[in-house]
Write a sequence for this structure.
């Protein structure tokens, strides 16, 4: 059992949907980002997605691209991203942290060393966008063996024939990408997403969380209503980009979390 | 024996798209079903004679293949050593080797029922070739080009527009070829149903590195036959410039199992292969990593962040290299060297003066290495160098580098 499993068990007992918030580690700088992340559990966030900056984020729209650039320019590294997790764990031992990013920074550090460090830092799961099931030997299987969840993306192009392959080595939860496209682009439609979530749930007992294109408390509520939870990333990152005070950013996060929890 | 797969250098990639440890399919789940479908369709087309008949017909009548293998007599005399042959792929329609591959991919796209073609381009040669073939077949064409390259390759931007393509300047990242490739992938992930991504080099997720190589292999096949006709034997050394590495892979592949043929790839050394990364020599100055769907040698920092390369040649300005080259480098079947901007410019001028051929800056790098080694080699040593593109697009860059005043218009 990881903190992710515990969290979904708790939510189930409370009859609530999960709210997942994505923040880029080190954006706009280490200190601000740490302050935002430390405030997320208090703002109603059930699971934190901690973005690992990368120079070439191929699946991300401009909002998250720019966040990664800001973080890298401010000196963010994989080590400092692990440090953010360690700092959060000093005050919070319950909220799951899922590191989300691309493979090369992890590969560059060395998979074995990374997994040891990530676990020690209190990270619970990984989402690595450019590692499909075809590349499971790279990180997915070693991560599971190290006791970390490996959370896979399922997408509108993942048809029923392929779905078992995507679900096979997935653990923690399934992240359904609501649109064909990049983060922060088109708006997710609950009417389209509902049947897709049902299609996935027919093949797995894992919770299905939906992300990409969810920008408002209303959308958070609507999407969480047809799934086990909702992820918001670009909309929160946009508030950080606008230079808003941390309290204001967290108030916005609170409104998104309340939306999902109303569902 | 070439047909013994275990003892052949030509058996890759394996079913996972790997050349040794390099290559693979490092893409997001949204794209995965698309590249699997592409692989199925390509594997089918490869064994379909009507596919190759269509290619051959267009190569002959539209591109102008076979391209000549030309004995560079004055260059040979000037350097005073090895006999130098140039494979004249700069004489192809659109002025470079790029169209060999584009034709293959567009014919495949048409067979797959795709109506919209996207491409990335650096120097603009692949973009021009893609726009050209799209015009010929009446397909919608969108070309992503780094904003920085749009500025330094203005003539090619205008060509693409004349040919009906939408050229989208890419400002994300630093606005060069790697960023153009990122944005092309973002487009593909968004427009999965009707769009075909026509990659310009032997990189990207499997099956692209193998497929692009197979479409470029015509260069080496022709060169081999032509050398047999001219000299009655195989060349001793073959040389080509490498950015992503498609012209080089095309020349090298048919010779991989001819073990007496020395194979040399020439990377862009920019201002010199140094710590400041003012070069694009991924093999000489990089280390293995994962980018744009494949594992290969990359220019990157200690934290796995990708670095921008630098070269006077926009076509070589890419921080990675095709995975098959990484493998050939590691097993030692091919040798990889680097040439600086300054050396490439000298070769550019020498080729103009001695042979009446204005080469592109990319093959000028290969020629500069020929200039280094040819004088020391015996007079019966045979070299083939791939003249993969012509230099019309580069005259403004060269004029500036040589301190000439030139008014455009």
């Amino acid at each position: 059992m990881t903190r992710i499993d515990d969290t979904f068990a708790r939510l189930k007992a409370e009859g609530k949907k999960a709210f997942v918030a994505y923040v880029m580690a080190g954006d706009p700088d280490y200190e601000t980002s740490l302050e935002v992340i430390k405030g997320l559990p208090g703002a109603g966030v059930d699971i934190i997605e901690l973005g690992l900056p990368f120079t070439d984020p191929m699946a991300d729209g401009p909002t998250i691209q720019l966040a990664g650039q800001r973080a890298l320019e401010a000196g963010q590294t994989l080590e400092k991203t692990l440090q953010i997790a360690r700092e959060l764990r000093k005050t919070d031992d319950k909220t799951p942290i899922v590191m989300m990013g691309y493979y090369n920074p992890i590969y560059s550090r060395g998979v074995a060393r990374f997994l040891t460090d990530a676990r020690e830092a209190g990270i619970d799961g990984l989402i690595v966008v450019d590692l499909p099931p075809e590349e499971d030997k790279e990180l997915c299987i070693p991560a599971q063996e190290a006791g970390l969840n490996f959370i896979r993306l399922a997408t509108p192009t993942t048809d029923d024939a392929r779905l078992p392959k995507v679900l096979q080595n997935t653990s923690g939860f399934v992240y359904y990408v609501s649109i064909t496209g990049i983060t922060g682009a088109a708006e997710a439609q609950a009417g389209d997403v509902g049947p897709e979530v049902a299609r996935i749930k027919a093949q797995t007992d894992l919770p299905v969380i939906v992300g990409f294109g969810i920008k408002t408390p209303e959308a958070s509520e609507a999407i969480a209503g047809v799934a086990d939870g909702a992820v918001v990333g670009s909309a929160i990152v946009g508030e950080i980009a606008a230079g808003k005070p941390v309290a204001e950013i967290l108030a916005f996060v609170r409104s998104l979390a309340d939306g999902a929890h109303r569902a | 024996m070439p047909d013994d797969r275990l003892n052949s250098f030509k058996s890759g990639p394996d079913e996972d798209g790997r050349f040794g440890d390099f290559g693979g399919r490092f893409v997001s789940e949204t794209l995965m079903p698309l590249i699997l479908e592409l692989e199925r369709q390509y594997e089918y087309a490869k064994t379909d004679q009507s596919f190759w008949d269509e290619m051959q017909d267009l190569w002959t009548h539209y591109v102008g293949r076979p391209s000549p293998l030309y004995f560079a007599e004055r260059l040979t005399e000037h350097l005073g050593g090895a006999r130098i042959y140039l494979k004249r792929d700069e004489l192809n329609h659109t002025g470079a080797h790029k169209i060999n591959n584009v034709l293959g991919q567009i014919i495949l796209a048409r067979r797959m029922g795709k109506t919209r073609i996207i491409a990335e381009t650096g120097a603009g040669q692949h973009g021009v070739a893609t726009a050209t073939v799209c015009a010929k077949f009446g397909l919608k064409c969108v070309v992503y080009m780094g904003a920085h390259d749009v500025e330094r390759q203005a003539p090619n931007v205008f060509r693409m527009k004349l040919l009906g393509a939408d050229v989208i300047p890419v400002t994300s990242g630093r606005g060069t070829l790697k960023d153009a490739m990122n944005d092309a992938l973002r487009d593909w992930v968004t427009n999965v149903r009707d769009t075909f991504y026509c990659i310009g080099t032997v990189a990207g997720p499997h099956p692209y590195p193998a497929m692009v190589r197979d479409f470029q292999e015509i260069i080496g096949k022709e060169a081999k036959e032509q050398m047999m006709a001219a000299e009655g034997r195989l060349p001793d050394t073959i040389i080509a410039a490498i950015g992503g590495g498609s012209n080089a892979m095309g020349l090298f592949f048919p010779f991989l199992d001819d073990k007496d043929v020395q194979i040399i790839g020439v990377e862009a050394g920019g201002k010199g292969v140094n710590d400041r990364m003012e070069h694009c020599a991924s093999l000489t100055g990089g280390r293995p990593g994962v980018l744009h769907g494949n594992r290969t040698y990359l220019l990157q920092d200690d934290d796995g962040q990708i670095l921008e390369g630098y070269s006077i040649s926009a076509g070589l300005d890419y921080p990675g290299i095709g995975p098959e080259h990484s493998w050939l480098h590691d097993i030692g079947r091919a040798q990889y060297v680097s040439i600086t901007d300054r050396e490439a410019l000298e070769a550019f001028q020498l080729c103009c003066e001695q042979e009446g051929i204005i080469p592109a800056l990319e093959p000028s790098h290969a020629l500069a290495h020929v200039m280094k080694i040819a004088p020391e080699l015996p007079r019966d040593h045979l070299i083939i160098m791939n003249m993969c593109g012509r230099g019309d697009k580069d005259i403004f860059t060269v004029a500036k580098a040589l301190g000439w005043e030139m008014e455009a218009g």
Notes: The first helix of chain B runs from residue 32 to 46.
